[in-house]
């Protein structure tokens, strides 16, 4: 019989696992959190995510889902009540997905370079990252959150930086990717 309940396979320092935990908490869903040692992955992680073998994995009633942004959308659909994560309007939803993709594809690699370089290379990385972030800042103009008055999908996708700063200020990257 399939295992019941909600489980998150994560890693404490991961900037993408926190998205899943934020989404579950916003929905008020109780879950079990399992911290993975990424240098010695558990049998569960290899079984539930045999393709990429990465965290996060959400296991809902025994069924695994991988990829943080896909998991966040799944959580919004599976627990329809409570805090809405995706915008109700199809156009706004498309916009949120566009900016999420932009942040993932353009900004995250640029931001990551800041933490992995020094000297002139780091100064250049800061400049590139600032350029990447400008359109995002413009999209936020006049709003408290990307989701409007309340935290939504894009806030969850982009908010990792606030979570990660204390992590990286403790030393080099803890995340293998
Ligand atoms: N695009 C994936 C990225 C997942 C990812 O890179 N997870 C890292 C931790 S932050 C991981 O599990 N790394 C282990 C590995 O690459 O073997 C997502 O958003 O879920």
From TrEMBL:
Please verify whether the record's keywords include Transferase.
Answer: yes
**GO cellular component terms, semicolon-separated:** cytosol
Catalyses which reaction? RX + glutathione = an S-substituted glutathione + a halide anion + H(+)
Q: Where in the cell is it found?
A: Cytoplasm, Cytosol
Q: What is its EC number?
A: 2.5.1.18
- Which GO BP terms sit in this record? glutathione metabolic process
Read off the InterPro entries from this record. Answer: Glutathione-S-Trfase_C-like (IPR010987), Glutathione-S-Trfase_C_sf (IPR036282), Glutathione_S-Trfase (IPR040079), Glutathione_S-Trfase_N (IPR004045), GST_C_Tau (IPR045074), Omega/Tau-like (IPR045073), Thioredoxin-like_sf (IPR036249)
Q: Which Pfam families match?
A: GST_N
Keywords for this protein: Cytoplasm, Transferase
Q: Name one GO molecular function term.
A: glutathione transferase activity
Q: Superkingdom, according to UniProt? A: Eukaryota
In this chain the GST C-terminal domain maps to 89-177
Gene3D superfamilies listed in its UniProt record: 1.20.1050.10, Glutaredoxin
Q: Domain GST N-terminal, which positions?
A: 4-83
Q: Which SUPFAM superfamilies match?
A: GST C-terminal domain-like, Thioredoxin-like
The free-text function statement in the UniProt record for this protein reads: Is involved in the conjugation of reduced glutathione to a wide number of exogenous and endogenous hydrophobic electrophiles.
Q: Which family does it belong to?
A: Belongs to the GST superfamily.
> What is the protein's given name?
Glutathione S-transferase
């Amino acid at each position: 019989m399939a295992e019941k309940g909600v489980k998150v396979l994560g890693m404490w320092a991961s900037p993408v696992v926190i998205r899943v935990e934020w989404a579950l908490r916003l929905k008020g869903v109780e879950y079990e959190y399992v911290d993975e040692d990424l240098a010695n992955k558990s049998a569960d992680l290899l079984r539930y995510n045999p393709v990429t073998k990465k965290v996060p994995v959400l296991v809902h009633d025994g069924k695994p889902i991988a990829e943080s942004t896909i998991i966040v959308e799944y959580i919004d659909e599976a627990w329809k009540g409570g805090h809405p994560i995706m915008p109700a309007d199809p156009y706004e939803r498309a916009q949120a997905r566009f900016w999420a993709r932009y942040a993932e594809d353009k900004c995250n690699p640029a931001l990551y370079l800041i933490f992995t370089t020094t000297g002139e290379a780091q100064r250049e990385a800061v400049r590139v990252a600032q350029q990447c972030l400008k359109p995002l800042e413009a999209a936020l103009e006049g709003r408290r959150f990307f989701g409007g008055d309340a935290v939504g999908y894009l806030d969850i996708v982009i908010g990792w930086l606030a979570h990660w700063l204390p992590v990286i200020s403790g030393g080099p990257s803890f995340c293998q990717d």
